[in-house]
Amino acid sequence: MPAEASTFTYYDILALPNPTSTKDPTTSDAVKTAYRRALLRHHPDKTKTADAARNARPSVDQITLAYKTLASPTKRLAYDRSLVQQRRTSDARSQDQQCEGFESVDLDDMHVDEMAGLYFLGCRCGRARGYIVTENELEKHATQGAVNVGCEGCSLWIKVEFGVVDGEAVDEGLKHDEHG
Questions:
Q1: Angle at the Cα of 85 from the Cα atoms of 79 and 91, rounded to 5 degrees
Q2: Which of 4, 49, 101, 162 has its CA 20 to 30 A from that of 172?
Q3: Ranges of the chain whose pLDDT falls below 70
Q4: CA triple 3-9-14, angle to 5 deg
Q5: Secondary structure of 89-116 as H, E, C letters
């Protein structure tokens, strides 16, 4: 979700229920209807609210972007995945403060799917790609050198640690080969 959409999800913007499972009951007609209602509800020419309240509302551009994303099955799937990853990362940060015993894993120990731009690792629950870390997540957490990741199939978490050189995660073995 773009930064200008602030704390609103696209589902919030269109007043649609957030998907809670792999079966989403929201149809394309429902998305179109929600889009039209959101435009009427939030259009600057149609509302007479104070500037502070207007700034707390989504813009027409944000409403249109939400519609275009949720109306396209492929864009919607990618967006839903990004919401899940954001929630997991947020949950992991709060759990990291509360819980000890996170299993630490080096990024080098994970498998790479270069086509999808992600790293993955199997979980004890049996899911082959239980833990998934995207390159974008690594970039976001480059200053920390670690990212907490929840399993896609159960409630287990790991901390993926990585080295950073010039803003990119690097393979420790490659660094040693280059220097000696």
A1: 140
A2: 101
A3: 1-7, 20-25, 46-56, 88-102, 164-180
A4: 125
A5: HHHHHHHHHHCCCCEEEEHHHCEEECCC
- 169: number of CA atoms within 13 Å, CB side? 25
Beta strands at 157-161 and 103-106: parallel, antiparallel or unpaired: parallel
Token pair, residue 90, equals: 């947020």
The pLDDT assigned to 176 comes to 44
Report all structural domains of the chain as residue ranges with CATH numbers, in order of start: 3-71 (1.10.287.110), 100-179 (3.10.660.10)
The DSSP annotation for 114-135 comes to TTTTEEEE--TTS-TT-EEEEH
Separation CA 163–CA 161 (nearest Å): 7
pLDDT value for 120: 94
CB 161 within 8 A of CB 106: yes
**Is the Cα dihedral 159, 126, 19, 119 positive or negative?**
positive
CB atoms within 10 A of CB 171: 14
**Selection from 123, 172, 169 nearest residue 146 by Cα:** 169
CB 153 within 8 A of CB 125: yes
Q: At what angle do helices 60-71 and 28-42 cross, to 10 degrees?
A: 180
